[in-house]
Amino acid sequence: QAQLVESGGGLVQSGGSLRLSCVASGISFSLYTMTWYRQAPGNQRELVARITDGDITNYADSVQGRFTISRDNARNTVYLQMNSLKPEDTAVYVCCASLARNYWGQGTQVTVSS
Questions:
Q1: What is the mean pLDDT of residues 85-114?
Q2: Positive or negative: CA dihedral 53, 51, 108, 16
Q3: Tens-digit pLDDT profile for residues 47-66
Q4: Can you tell me whether residue 35 is helix, strand or coil?
Q5: Over residues 57-82, mean pLDDT
Q6: Where would I find the beta strands (DSSP E) of 8-104?
Q7: Residue 90: which residues within 8 A CB-CB, separation 6 or more?
Q8: Radius of gyration of the CA atoms of the chain, in A
Q9: Gap between the Cα atoms of 28 and 17, Å rounded
Q10: Mean pLDDT computed over 21-49
């Protein structure tokens, strides 16, 4: 049974930093592309950052230069380091593991106060 569990969200002031983690179980983690998405109330879900099994990364324009995605295959974990946070980064952040199908976590709330 595949499971993804996110952690690390919280309340932070504008300009602050957070590091999100997503721990996977029940899958061959190293084979999967891992993606962080976010969804704010009233908005569509948007891709934030992605890392492939070969460590190729890509980012949304809105977070380029501020966020960094990384993975630790030995720990079955993907991270999202978020720096210089802005109020518009406020959302539920969800991780997704993709190969033949997608597996989703439950999400972690990030709130950035101005």
A1: 97
A2: positive
A3: 999 999 999 999 999 999 99
A4: strand
A5: 98
A6: 10-13, 18-25, 33-39, 46-51, 57-59, 67-72, 77-82, 91-98, 102-104
A7: 40, 110, 111, 112
A8: 13
A9: 30
A10: 97
